[in-house]
Amino acid sequence: MTEFAVELRDVVKTFRTPEGTLLNAVDHVTLQIRNGEFFSMLGSSGCGKTTSLRMIAGFEWPTQGEVFIAGKAMGHTPPFQRPVNTVFQNYALFQHMTVYQNIAFGLEMDRVPPAEIKRRVGEMLELVQLVGLERRYPRQLSGGQQQRVALARALVKMPKVLLLDEPLGALDLKLRKEMQLELKAIQQKVGITFVYVTHDQEEALTMSDRIAVMSKGKVMQIGAPVEIYERPSNRFVADFIGESNFLDGTVREVEGDYATVYVPALNAEIRGLNTGQVRRSESVVVSIRPEKVRLSSQTALQNNSFVGRVTKSTYIGADTHVYVDVRGYLFKVWEQNKISSLDPKAYYTIGQEVVVNLFPENTLILSGM
Length: 369
Prior knowledge:
The structure is a single chain. By secondary structure, this protein is of the alpha+beta class. The chain has 8 helices and 20 strands. The protein has helices at residues 49-57, 99-109, 114-127, 143-155, 173-190, 201-207, 225-230, 235-240; strands at 4-16, 22-34, 38-42, 64-69, 72-73, 84-87, 161-165, 193-198, 210-215, 218-223, 245-255, 258-263, 268-273, 283-288, 294-296, 305-315, 319-326, 329-336, 353-357, 364-367. The strands form 4 sheets. A 6-stranded mixed beta sheet has the order 6-7-8-3-9-10, sandwiched between helices. The protein has a 5-stranded antiparallel beta sheet with strand order 13-12-11-14-20, with no helix packed on it. A hairpin with a 3-residue loop joins strand 16 and strand 17. It is globular, with a radius of gyration of 25 Å. The relative contact order is 0.11. The model has no long low-confidence stretch (mean pLDDT 92).
């Protein structure tokens, strides 16, 4: 058995725009999705993630390259002949059928014996926690319950790969977060490969074993959530996943895993991790997450410490978002509220002088892409 459930090998999908020009919606994408993996394709609208999913499903065929499912070339195979199933954002349930009938539909089309259908639908109802609701119609269910029916209907046929196209997009925030954890738990129980498309960074980080970050039809980086967040390969990934402070500069020196960069905006040098394998004299970007910046009343580091003034401080419950002006550059700093206090002196005030400390191990030197 092949190691990969899905492979895209140098896949291109070209569309003609309304203006008559050709556009590569997917631009020479190569990726491998392992068996039993929860793999997410993450990016903003128009990045090529849904088109990639549709090519795996068979709803679109590649212009160039090939799509493999379980080791077999499937680029021009119709959807119904592929060992995959898809869950859509709008659920696509049959409104005139009960929960039971919706889940059983695919098995009935495959002429599975009635006793086997009853057993497998029963297992799915338990898996998605809908036992007792099998006689209800979709209109009698909440959004979250309808999503579970759609999931059960797709899983009951035990596809090799389950494709999910922003399936939680129609749910409210609280329910969406609950369903994220449920989806991950269900995937771990059934052991089927899930390929998930989303534009929600937190959703991808929460559920995925690995993530492909996409932009303009290309894969910018593939990695585990911690790798994508803590070691982005370039400025785009660092900017798209979470928030970051960015400073343009030029590499002055490279020493082992670290590099020293001259930053004109601060008229100073900053030392950080050489994650982009940059070289001397190269134009680069210094990136540091707001929660990794440390504020103090005095200099804490020999280098990478800068005096500034607080211009804004916003209390948001778990954190306080502090903005500090250093020589005209505005640093974003997220500080966790570890002490419960109503004392105004416990929080930063506008105009207060502070020292911004950028610890080198938390400061990333990235290629400027």
